[in-house]
Amino acid sequence: MGRKIVAALGVLVVVVGLGFLATRIYASMQTGDDVPAPAVGSSAPAATADPADLDGDWTVSDGSEAGYRVDEVLSGQDVTVVGRTEQVTGSGTVADGELTAASVEVDLASITTDESARDGQFQGILDTRTHPTATFELTGPVDIAAVADGGTVTVDAPGTMTIKGVTQDVTASLEIRLADDDGDVVAELAATVPVTFADYGVEAPDLGFVTVEDDGFVEAELTLAH
Fold it and tell me: What is the pTM of this model?
């Protein structure tokens, strides 16, 4: 009997150890820590422009992407999850060195991570069939005149974010610079918007073995053509 108990305990230790190891391996595979936060500075060199040439409408073009970043606790392991999509549209208007209007729309149903099961849960929680997009609208002017000199402007932009049919006031942290894209001047914009899920009627999932934090970030890296 004693040998059976010892053997059973040995099997239990092995199972627990394998479970812990599997969780560590899974967590390392799921991490978004290797996905950098949005930032300007592509391979295209910085560009300058006459300030008057900045005036007018700018449109989100190919190469842009948006999504989210959120922390999870997976069986005691901290995991950062990053979802991305290139299905993002939008535009902005510049007048006298100020960004006076801007609107960005993201197709939530097309956002993917490294795990399809998580993506399905994400779409269900946000009810993307009913509310397929999230939008940001600028609500106040932002001084970006320094980009004309080839510099990078870092500003806070007031706006509203609409997720799951709920609109909230937010502040987006922006980086903006001009870049030379094969002779054409484009604008690169990186945006980070902190969000609290409950503000949008979204309950962060808690499945026992995985718990999603109550706060996260909406992120975007945009290229805009004039």
Answer: 0.82
